[in-house]
Design brief:
Structural class: alpha/beta
Oligomer: single chain
Order of helices and strands: HEHEHEHEHEH
Number of helices: 6
Largest sheet: 3 strands, parallel
Radius of gyration: 16 Å
CATH topology: Rossmann fold
Number of domains: 1
Length: about 180
């Protein structure tokens, strides 16, 4: 949910509804005492820490010191939220997220953001590989390519992740307060 992600027409079209849904999700999490972790991607201006394709094609996205890697202004953040900076699709690869989740005694992750076919899917797989159950909230994820979004959602559903909605999640939390931490 970074500025540079929303240069694509499909994501721009969904921006307002995505932000509204994610704000609703994070408010629900905070209200129930669950931690909120924001994940951003950021690279050095010389691309020394960028992906192979970014270096090869001189793709200049998420460059440190620009507005590109900043979380969208319309997303509501609090001082109690956490932030992780990543260098690859997965929020786990080369970050301190594992340690943070252990310190917070997290036993499940709920994913929201873009792009479903890349960052969300990779994060879901990596969480699953760590024996962390994964929930993906419909309406809180999207891709610049809706075909790949749909394929990824179908692939993950019931396997490495379970898909849910905010109303269903709200109900599950009310019925099972220890659903996730």
């Amino acid at each position: 949910m970074l500025n540079d992600c929303f240069g694509h027409a499909e994501l721009t079209r969904q921006r307002a509804s995505l932000c509204s849904s994610i704000n609703e999700l994070t408010a629900l999490a905070r209200a129930n005492g669950y931690p909120v972790v924001w994940v951003r991607q950021e690279f050095e201006p010389d691309l020394s820490d960028a992906t192979m394709d970014m270096k090869a094609e001189n793709i200049r996205m998420f460059i440190k010191g620009t507005e590109g890697p900043a979380i969208l202004d319309e997303l509501l953040r609090t001082d109690g939220d956490f932030e992780i900076v990543k260098k690859r699709y997965s929020m786990f690869f080369g970050t301190g997220l594992d340690q943070l989740l252990r310190r917070l005694d997290v036993d499940q992750v709920i994913l929201a953001g873009v792009n479903t076919h890349a960052c969300i899917r990779t994060a879901a797989i990596d969480a699953y590989q760590r024996d962390l159950p994964v929930l993906i909230v419909r309406g809180c994820v999207a891709s610049k390519d809706m075909h790949h979004h749909d394929v990824s959602m179908n692939y993950m559903d019931g396997g490495i992740a379970n898909l849910t909605t905010i109303p269903d999640l709200r109900y599950k939390i009310a019925m099972t307060p220890t659903l996730c931490r």
